[in-house]
Specification:
The protein has helices at 2-12, 41-51, 89-97, 113-131, 177-181, 186-198; strands spanning 20-30, 33-35, 54-66, 72-84, 137-143, 147-154, 202-208, 212-220. With 224 residues, the protein is of the alpha+beta class. The strands form 2 sheets. Strands 2-1-3-4 form a 4-stranded antiparallel beta sheet. A 4-stranded antiparallel beta sheet has the order 5-6-8-7. Helix 2 crosses helix 3 (89-97). The longest helix is centred in the middle third of the chain and has 19 residues, at 113-131. It is globular.
């Protein structure tokens, strides 16, 4: 958590206006052993072998900072148990040859990470900016046999049910204070939705005003 705070505070210190900073840092562990970034290809392969066909843990610290006239800061962490499928030597060698594992703790990363990071940033920023009156932000990861789901949850003013599908439309406009404010971030929601579709997934919205608003990212599980 400390590294996520340091990252966010370093960026926030350079800002002069009202903005939202998200800092994150992830640690991969197998039992009591913390797995850092691999030193070379051989180290990356050894890491992959040690976590394949078994369960390991991913700890992520997140810091959210709002700058400006009403500064706010919150830091939290989440633990995820990850079950990695068996990996053949050929699969490990091909993955290592791509270069992707070399700057990742534990020597693995989700595919299309840039797109997923953009989706997460847009949805979290939306929840903070337009659901902040509910004083709650939650992120939940869950799965079934075919899909992985990421829920971004706030308890703010929400979106009326009849508008739930339309908030992703680029030109969509509504009249109340939260929804008129969302006109400025509507493009962000459109981009997030389109990126999810490009990944073979989707983003849906379920909202009960002043109770719970949930944007759910749905992604297909990798097939092995």
């Amino acid at each position: 958590m400390e590294l996520s705070r340091q990252k966010a505070e370093e960026i926030a210190a350079a800002q002069t206006g009202d903005c939202i900073i998200i800092g994150a840092d992830t640690v991969v562990a197998k039992g009591e052993k913390i797995m850092g970034k691999p030193k070379d290809a051989a180290d990356a392969k050894q890491m992959l072998r040690s976590i394949a066909d078994d369960c390991h843990q991913v700890y992520t610290g997140v810091t959210l900072i709002r700058t400006g006239a009403h500064p706010q800061s919150v830091t939290f962490q989440e633990k995820t148990d990850v079950f990695l499928y068996p990996i053949s030597d050929a699969e490990a060698d091909a993955y290592i040859a791509s270069g992707d594992p070399m700057d990742k703790a534990g020597a693995y990363a989700n595919a299309n990470k840039d797109a997923l990071q953009r989706i997460m940033f847009n949805l979290i920023s939306n929840a903070i900016r337009y659901g902040g009156d509910g004083k709650y932000l939650g992120m939940f990861l869950w799965a079934d046999q075919a899909h992985i789901y990421i829920d971004i949850v706030d308890r703010g003013r929400g979106i009326e049910k009849e508008f739930a599908d339309s908030v992703f439309d680029r030109l969509f406009m509504m009249e109340d204070s939260r929804n008129s404010a969302m006109q400025g971030n509507g493009l962000g929601l459109t981009i997030a939705k389109n990126l999810a579709l490009q990944l073979g997934g989707d983003i849906t919205l379920e909202s009960h005003p002043h109770q719970k608003t949930v944007f759910t990212i749905t992604l297909k599980k990798m097939a092995y």
